[in-house]
Design a protein that fits this description.
heterotrimer, A alpha/beta (about 325), B alpha/beta (about 260), C mainly alpha (about 280), B: about 260 residues, Rossmann fold, 6-stranded mixed sheet, 4-stranded antiparallel sheet, 10 strands, C: about 280 residues, mainly alpha, MetI-like fold
Amino acid sequence: MPILETKGVKAYYSTPLGYVRAVDGIDLALEKGIILGLAGESGCGKSTLVNTLMMNVRPPLRFIEGTIILDGKEISSMNRSTLKKNVWGVLVSLVPQSALNALMPTQRITDLVKDVVTHHMNVSEQEVISMAKKRFEQLNLEADALYRYPHELSGGMKQRVVIAISTLLNPKLLIVDEPTSALDVSTQKQVLKMLVDLKRAKIIESMIFVTHDIAVLRQIADWIAIMYAGKIVESGPTNDMLINPKHPYTFSLVNAVVTPEPEVKSRGLISLSGEPPNLLNPPKGCRFNPRCPNAMEVCRSKEPPLEEKSNRLVACHLVSS
Amino acid sequence: MNVLLEVKELTKIYNVGLIRRKEIIAVKNISFDVKPEMFLSLVGESGSGKTTTAKIILKLTKPTSGSIIFEGKNIENINTLKELRQYWRNVHGIFQDPYASFNPFYKVDRALSQVFTLLEGSSFDKESIIKEALREVGLRPEEVLDKYPHELSGGQRQRIMIARCYILKPKLILADEPLSMIDASTRAGILKLFSRLRDEYKTSVIFITHDLGLAYYVSDEILIMYKGSIVEKGPPNEIIEKPQAQYTRRLVEDVPLLYKKWSGF
Amino acid sequence: MIPRIIKDLLKIKKLDVSLGIFLGLVLLSLLGPMIYPVDPLSVVGPPERPPSSAYPLGTDNRGRDVLAQLIGGIKNSLYIGVIAALISLGIGVVIGAISGYKGGLTDSSLMLMTDVVLVLPSILIMMLVAAYLKERNPIFVSIIIGVTSWPWVARAVRAQMMSLKAREFVYMSRIAGLRDIRIIVEDLLPNMASYIFMAFVLLMSGAMIAEAGLSMIGLGVTKGISLGIILYWAQLFESVRRGLWWWFMPPGACLVALASSLLLMSTALDEYFSPRLKGG
């Protein structure tokens, strides 16, 4: 049974000008024990999607329709207090994009830990601290970081601390949203190593990693899903996706990656014209059709369904035919 | 002229604080040369001093010591408005944040009409020169000219900034992280605009970036900066395949690659 | 662009309420003399009478019409408030802008001067100057208040200027070869316009209270009427102890209404402009 399964999930932002269709019909199935990389450019809806996946939906974001089944439980029909008590932190944990800046500057890390744990478990303060210390040791984090204030920790350290704390209640699924975008490459590697170790040590069973950096996903993701304009356009095993991308957008993304490798120089860089569409009024048919070099007549009128094609899921008329 | 720009033992020290003064050495004794039609990258992380170096070359701030020689003349002696304008006509800049580069109160055409202050003579058909430059960077003048910055996308704004250079045709451009706020799928298009400036007008570009991959792809020479100093200098292949300095080696090891997997991951 | 801002601003409740109160009082002072043409300073009836149909706000100790005094007083208080605020604003913005933009020695010396004026006990200075001048007309009083209230404006404008200076669009204007003055006027001041307007509103509020303060110790305008002067007389003749509420309550209430409506306006404007400035 997949750890997370969604059908037709739609979540829109309500604005004075109408609905911004940030998540527009997502079917997803995440098998246990997988690190899924969710990739896409700015504005594609990936941050909205992961918040929706755990039903963290607050106005102006509205959950429109769909079902989300997490660890066999239908969380899409739960109310906020049930979610807070039984799901968040316990089944699934989200480390949001600006987690580093959300740490209270006047609280030591221990205070944060106590808040997180005592909300769910009836344990004494000492037990909480020893839980945290144990987890930190497991992850090669210095235990005395617990007694510090956020500003005394470096960016990379803060990120690792936040991730460690999000695993304290042993959730089955960990979602991290752009955890390394603001870090330098060496710190990034440390944080990525920690995430991989989390899975190896079986502290976390499954993970969703949101990023725009495809090279990072190459290093840590087992499976990649590409998002464009509120929809998933392709998903499949990492290596296959990167060596042989089927969807034209995936192809452009992969060939726009610039890493210091001779293969990149010889392959050259692809550029797409135009911009990602305005989700208030997305294009008819396939949302990628205005920028697609292979767009056909049917692409402008009919939306391609996400279909299985060998070991992938692809939403493209060209590929289906 | 074999050398366009010489940077000689450039140092910039900031003094911070009122009572207890603290010294911050932003740039420490760096030297390098830029030739005509050359793409050079200053690679380093935040705090490495690369942006400060760019600002000094652009005469936006003064160095503490050292000199910068442009076409044989020390830029310290460029002080009158007329001389400054001539300098900026030949040495221009493009910054990282295509939104912050525009004053939100004015329409975007101001960013383009401004630069005519640098061009001598007054009998210009400004409108057609501006329209031509916009077309050169792949924008349609009707779509873009009458708009305010917030009505355009990041890619469009950055292209307008580059259009400034198509009007000026400078000999040297300082581009500070020109692609970091641009979507990956449209970056190559922006890069091509720089290449065309070099091919058509023999412009040299100093790219300031933290992205080793970008520097590798586009430069003739890479300078690695760390804490204000240049720790290594060389052509892209050598830097990537045979890094000498410890910092460079660490950078090369830690950059996530597409065609190779990290060991232990 | 201008009509859109006004439309948006009028949607803010706080602004509507405060603007309504303020404009209401302004209209009262402007139209009042036409609707109620009574001379505030001449005796019109028996002294210390409570409000009645003949005298809507009663009379003071000399038999002068309190309502007429109120109308005239609001007008003068507003007048002094505006002039003093403009003087302070002018001095503060110019000094702050030059100091912030130029930096270096110019900045240090201007700020030193600002600090000196800042720590001078402005009330004492106002009192000394006011006491020295035998004849005090509204302009003098405005100048006295204006010339002592600008330091915070200069410091605030300087701070804004210094942060704006490092914005990339200022770099772009500099390397386009524009003159410094042009950059200050074209690039920097518009981005501070909202702040300058708020400073004006705050200055006006403070100036009106300062004028009332000066008047209540007998150092306001020598001839004429203002809210502070009404309060001065009311307090001098022990209106509180003697229960002559129609004499001290209306001017006090109007002063509070004027000052607080201005403060509320500036808060509403601040809320409207700040997220904008951050979000871009």
